[in-house]
Design brief:
- The active site is at residue 256.
- It holds the Pfam family UDPG_MGDP_dh_N.
- Belongs to the UDP-glucose/GDP-mannose dehydrogenase family.
- Its EC number is 1.1.1.22.
- With 427 residues, the chain is of the alpha/beta class.
- It has three domains: 6-191, 3-Layer(aba) Sandwich (Rossmann fold); 200-286, N-(1-d-carboxylethyl)-l-norvaline Dehydrogenase, domain 2 (Orthogonal Bundle), CATH 1.10.1040.10; 288-422, Rossmann fold, CATH 3.40.50.720.
- The protein is built from 18 helices and 13 strands.
- The chain has a six-stranded parallel β-sheet.
- Helix 15 links the parallel strand 9 (340-344) and strand 10 (360-361).
- Helix 1 crosses helix 3, helix 9 crosses helix 11 (257-270) and helix 9 (193-224) packs across helix 12 (276-286).
- The longest helix is centred in the middle third of the chain and has 32 residues, at 193-224.
- The chain is elongated and about 75 Å long.
- The termini are far apart.
- It binds uridine-5'-diphosphate-glucuronic acid.
- Residues 117, 147-151, 204, 207, 211, 245-247, 249, 252-254, 256-257, 260, 315-316 line the site of uridine-5'-diphosphate-glucuronic acid (UGA).
C-alpha cells in the first residue's frame, strides 16, 4: 500500500481483516513512527483498534523504503494524494513519482492497482510511466479500483461496500484483484480502466448534485413556509430517488467533493464540452453560506461588534478534517463583516487546531453560550444534539440559533425560548 492517508490506511486494515499480508509504504518517516507505535495520525473511529490488532499479529508492517516494498510485493496499491491545481486540473505528481519508483524497482510480474482518485486516462499513464523506468522489459498490469469510503465511516464502508469496481484491460489481472475481495459480499463490477475512473467521479458528482438540489429546494421552502425535511422524505420514498444525501444544510465540503467536481469540470472543458449541471451544482454550494448569512442578518441585524459562536469546525461529524469545511468559510465571512467569533469542536480543537483563523477556540461547548448573540451550528456532532440547551439559554445575549445542518430539535429549542432558524424549516 503506497501512501498511508485515509484511503491507504483504511484499505490496508480492511485487507488485513480479510487475512491478507500488507506492507504500508510512506516516505513520511514521522508519520510511520506514529503508526508503528499504534497511533493513527487523524481522527477516524475504529482504525486504531485494528491497527493494534494487526501490528501485534504481524499481518501489517510499515516501511519508508518504497523500492524494497515494491520488490517484496506482488500487488501494489497506489493510495497517494491527488490535489487540485488552481485551474481545477489534478496534480498527478505523486502518482507519477510512485509509478516511476515501481518501474525502476520492478523485479518480476506486478499488478499495480490505482485507488487514488484521478482523471480518466491516468491508469494508462501509470502503465506508461512504469514501463519507461523498468531496468529491463517486465510484465505489469494496471488496474483501477476506485474507493467509495466516507470519512468518519471509513472502516465500515471499506468492510461493507455497496459495490467493488475493478477496471482493467487484462481479465486475468482483474480477477486477481477481485479475489482479494472474495470474503466481501457485494456486487463486483468488472469493467474497463477508463470506465472505472469515470464511475468514481460520476458517483461523487451525483451525490453532490443531490445535496445541492435539496439545498436549492430548501430556499424555496423558506419562501413558501414548507418543511424541506418533509419534502426530502416525500421524494426519497420514491425508490428511483432514494432518501440518502437529501439533508439540506450549509452545503458540502471536505477533501473530495470540491476537488472531484473541479476535476470533472476540467475534464469536460478539456473535451470541449460544457458541464452545465455540474456548474449549477457548484454554484448552489458556493452561494449557500451567503444565503445563511442573509438569514442570520435578517434576525440579528448588522453583525458588526456582535459575538457569534460556531459549533463544529470539521466538514462533517466523526472526523477532524477541516478541508473545504463550511465552518471556515462562515468564520472568514463573519470576521470580514466585523463580528467576534468563538468556536467549539470536539476533535478539531484537540487534534488540528486551525491556525490563523480569526476565532477564539473554546475548550467546552458551554463556553460558546456566554454573552453570545448567535450560535451557528455547522457540524452535527452527536453531543451537540444531546446537549442541555435548556439550562444554557440565559447565558446568551441574544438566544438566536442558526442550525446549518437542520439537526437540532426545533420544537424543543423554541419552547426553551430560543429563536431558531434552519433552512426550509417551518416555524
Ligand atoms: C465522499 C463520498 O460520500 C464517498 O463515497 C467518497 O468515497 C469520498 O467522498 C471520496 O471521494 O473520497 P466524504 O467526503 O468523506 O465522502 O463525506 P460525505 O459523507 O459524502 O459528505 C460530504 C459533504 O456533504 C459533507 O460536508 C456533508 O456534511 C455534506 N452532506 C452530506 C450534506 O450536506 N447533506 C447530506 O445529505 C449528505
Amino acid at each position: 500500500m503506497i501512501g498511508t492517508g485515509y484511503v491507504g490506511l483504511t484499505t490496508a486494515l480492511m485487507l488485513c481483516e480479510l487475512n491478507h499480508q500488507v506492507v504500508c509504504i510512506d516516505t513520511d518517516t514521522a508519520k510511520l513512527k506514529q503508526l508503528k507505535s499504534n497511533r493513527i495520525p487523524f481522527h477516524e473511529p475504529g482504525l486504531e483498534e485494528l491497527l493494534n490488532r494487526h501490528l501485534s499479529r504481524g499481518s501489517l508492517s510499515f516501511t519508508s523504503d518504497t523500492g524494497q516494498g515494491v520488490r517484496e510485493s506482488d500487488i501494489l496499491f497506489i493510495t497517494v494524494g491527488t490535489p487540485s491545481k488552481s485551474d481545477g486540473s489534478t496534480d498527478l505528481s505523486q502518482i507519477k513519482n510512485v509509478a516511476e519508483t515501481i518501474g525502476s524497482n520492478q523485479n518480476g510480474y506486478k499488478v499495480v492497482v490505482n485507488k487514488s482518485t484521478a482523471p480518466v486516462g491516468t491508469c494508462e499513464k501509470v502503465h506508461r510511466w512504469i514501463l519507461e523506468r523498468q531496468p529491463r522489459k517486465l510484465p505489469v498490469d494496471v488496474v483501477c479500483n476506485p474507493e467509495f469510503l466516507r470519512e468518519g465511516k471509513a472502516l465500515y464502508d471499506a468492510l461493507h461496500p455497496d459495490r467493488v469496481v475493478i477496471g482493467a484491460e487484462n481479465g486475468k489481472a482483474a480477477r486477481f484483484i477481485r479475489n482479494l475481495y472474495d470474503a466481501i459480499s457485494c456486487p463486483k463490477m468488472m469493467t474497463g480502466l477508463r470506465t472505472a475512473e469515470l464511475i468514481k467521479y460520476s458517483a461523487n458528482a451525483f451525490l453532490a448534485m443531490k445535496i445541492s438540489f435539496i439545498n436549492e429546494i430548501g430556499r424555496l421552502c423558506d419562501a413558501h413556509g414548507v418543511d424541506v425535511t418533509d419534502v426530502a422524505t416525500g421524494i426519497g420514498l420514491d425508490s428511483r430517488i432514494g432518501s440518502r444525501f437529501l439533508k439540506a444544510g450549509i452545503g458540502w465540503g471536505g477533501s473530495c467533493f470540491p476537488k472531484d467536481l473541479a476535476s470533472l469540470v476540467h475534464m469536460f472543458e478539456q473535451a470541449d464540452l460544457s458541464p452545465r449541471i455540474l456548474e449549477a451544482v457548484r454554484q448552489v454550494n458556493d452561494t449557500q453560506v451567503e444565503y445563511y448569512l442573509r438569514q442570520l442578518e435578517e434576525r440579528l441585524g448588522d453583525v458588526r461588534g456582535k459575538t457569534i459562536s460556531i459549533l463544529g469546525i470539521a466538514f462533517k461529524p466523526d472526523t477532524d478534517d477541516i478541508r473545504e469545511a463550511p465552518a471556515i468559510k462562515v468564520i472568514q465571512a463573519l470576521h470580514k463583516k466585523g463580528a467576534f467569533l468563538k468556536a467549539y469542536d470536539p476533535v478539531v480543537f484537540i487534534h488540528r487546531a486551525p491556525t490563523g483563523l480569526p476565532v477564539t477556540l473554546c475548550s467546552e461547548m458551554s463556553e460558546t453560550f456566554e454573552d453570545s448573540d448567535c450560535i451557528f451550528l455547522l457540524t452535527e456532532w452527536k453531543n451537540f444534539l444531546h446537549f442541555d440547551w435548556k439550562s444554557h439559554r440565559h447565558r446568551m445575549r441574544t438566544p438566536l440559533i442558526i442550525d446549518g445542518r437542520n439537526a437540532l430539535d426545533q420544537n424543543a429549542l423554541t419552547q426553551y425560548g430560543y429563536i431558531y432558524y434552519g433552512i426550509g424549516r417551518v416555524y
